[in-house]
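Journal club prep — side note

Before the paper discussion, L.F. wants everyone to see what a predicted structure for a comparable chain looks like in C-alpha cell form. Sequence:
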Amino acid sequence: MNRGPSYWKFNSSLVDDENYVLAINQKIPEWLGEFKEVIYKRVLWDLIKYRVRQFTMHYAKETASKRRQELL
C-alpha cells in the first residue's frame, strides 16, 4: 500500500536560523502582493500558511542536503 506524505509539523528550530527568518520576512510581502485580489481574510491567511509550509519544507530539505554534503 502506497502512503502519501504524513502530517506536517513545523520544525521550531528553524526560528533560530537567521537565514530562514530573513527569507520568510522577505517572502511574506511578495505573497501578500501575489494574493492582493483575495477579499476574505481567512482565505488569505490559509494561502499564506500554505506558502510558508511550501517554503519551509523546501528550505529544510535544502539545508539538510547541504549538511549531509558537508559531512562527507
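L.F.'s comment for the group: The CA atoms of residues 35 and 43 lie 10 Å apart. Keep this in mind when we get to the figures.
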